[in-house]
Amino acid sequence: MRVGISLLTLVPGEIGGAETAARGLCAGLAEEGTLDYEAFVPPVARGAGEGLPETVVVEYRAARTAPQRAVAMGLGALRPGRLRRAYAGLDAVHYPLTIALPTLALPSVVTVHDLQHLELPHLFSRAERLFRRRMHEGSARRADAVVVPSQFVRRAVVERLGLSPERVHAIPWGIDHGRFSPGDGSREGFLLYPARPWPHKNHERLFEAFALLRRERPELELVLTGGGHAGRPVPEGVTVKGLVSADELVS
């Protein structure tokens, strides 16, 4: 059985934990998978298949920023024919980044990471909410199966999107315990927050809490990783590392 992993909407460093999850999925399938998998990636994300056989879909418009990503997705949705040709010969397709692009006449699985635009609508512009309703919700409703990372998201998808519970499967993120495990050495004096500064990540409240903590522990440092921090002011004691490699993150 030949299964496609469609990563067309990936812009490296711009979509937060969804990218981490998708890359981790590909790496896990490359190591443990029992079917014939192939990753389909845009030209800007070569190597995102993390060891899977990979097809670079050169027909997909190049996108390196969030606005360019939106334009590329719009064009892909309007003119899917040239993209579909790259996916010929598949038996099924999985869209780990939620948006089913291109749509294919195949059994499909969509991963829904969250329904923030419904749970926290005040954090999104009207245009963003409309986009998510059409692209995220539409992709989930068309899919034969929906994968979510938790029972909380599963309940939200079933209740808010009206999907049959039998179609929605909660599969928690896998953890490589060989890499992510407590070390024997003494802990260094810092706190780590690996997240882009999106409103729902609530960096402002974190800074408030950190300031209170530093009154008792002035030696503590708060380290921020992830893209999107450039040019943003941070309080005393906060260090911005930006995008870091997986090896550096776990070191």
Structure write-up:
The chain contains 8 helices and 10 strands. The protein folds into 2 domains: 169 residues, Rossmann fold; 61 residues, no CATH class. The model has no long low-confidence stretch (mean pLDDT 91). The strands form 2 sheets. A 7-stranded parallel beta sheet has the order 3-2-1-4-5-6-7, sandwiched between helices. A 3-stranded parallel beta sheet has the order 8-9-10, with no helix packed on it. By secondary structure, it is of the alpha/beta class.
How many beta-strand segments?
Answer: 10
Q: Major beta sheet, specifics?
A: 7 strands, parallel
Radius of gyration: 20 Å
Level-2 CATH architecture of the largest domain:
3-Layer(aba) Sandwich
Q: Beta-strand level of the residues, as a percent range?
A: 15-25%
Trace the largest sheet across and list its strands. Answer: 3-2-1-4-5-6-7
Share of residues in helices: 25-40%
Number of separate domains: 2
Ends distance: 38 Å
Mean pLDDT: 91
Structural class: alpha/beta
- CATH fold-level label of the largest domain: Rossmann fold
Low-pLDDT ranges: none
- Judging from the principal axes of the Cα atoms, what is the shape? globular
Number of helices: 8
Which class of the largest domain in CATH terms?
Answer: Alpha Beta
CATH superfamily of the largest domain: Glycogen Phosphorylase B
What does the oligomeric state look like here?
A: single chain
Order of helices and strands: EHEEHHEEHHEHEEHEEH
